[in-house]
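Fold sample X.
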Amino acid sequence: MIGCLCMIFAVGVNAQESSLGNWLIYIGNKKIDNRWNIHSEAQYRNYNAIGDLEQLLLRTGVGYNLTEGGNNLLLGYGFINSQNYVNTDEKVSINEHRIFQQFITRQKIGKVGLQHRYRFEQRFIEDSDIRLRFRYFLGINAPLIEVNDGKNPIYLSIYNEIFINTVANIFDRNRLYGGIGYKINDNLKVELGYMNQFLNGGNRDQVNIFAFVNF
């Protein structure tokens, strides 16, 4: 645990000057029964505040709970359309199909929730060889305000995710995020936060807006 936190802040402090983008993110979970679930996800990523598309990401998958505590195995598929600038005025559109396997485990330390996510991706990028990538995500969720009925609708969310390739340029990227969330009810919560993405070629900053939906 201490080693994971050290990794978070050691990577995250390498900040450089970067432009500010915006990510609009929907994450859905459909519970089929006590064991099975369907994951759905859509992300609309912009180079600027909104309107200059950087990437459209659509992801889905079928998950299986190993325990009632939320230890979940999932097999998923993703489609990603990237709009990459080749110069200051012209974009090139690149499509990617992605298959991934992941394992999520959750734990509680007092009122603080921890989530570990391990993901392995097989990436089929247009006009490119198959690429393999590992990702490790550590999320921390802590209540901030308690209302009269004992619930904690406002919470702090922090996460770090590191991406590792299996070939040359082993380090792919690192994402460090902090935000404030509001739990509207048991099925819906929203979140606003700031993310720094550290890449081999520099940094990018994003304002992230999340909607989490259970149905």
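Fold sample Y, listed below.
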Amino acid sequence: MSARIHNICIDCRDTYALAGFWAQVFDCPRQSDDFPGDPEAMLLPPGGPEVLFLAVPEGKEVKNRLHLDLEPADRTRDEEVARLVAIGATRVADRRRADGSGWVVLADPEGNEFCVLRSAAERPATAG
């Protein structure tokens, strides 16, 4: 027997606002019963586990112990990074390499880091 991920929880100050940012990232709406000031908010991204935002009193102070790696579905890594920065992400580090590999580290509006990898179309075909 094994386990599966039911949801990914993100501690935050403003559940509604942060869920709104990630709703744009994942192109899915907040749940209809989520409102400003709620102690939790939920997203149901297509093809992935639920993402649950939980209100906590303390702010983020150190690097995440767990983060998301995102793979663009219908655009390049650089186009996705530009889109995410335009909706409120902050660039933390650029780990792209000259050969096109690597990733870009971004942070959401509350400082939670996540990475943007190359899309499947950008990765070279490998013999398998």
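Sample Y note: The mean pLDDT is 93.
Also: The chain has two domains: 1-59, 60-128.
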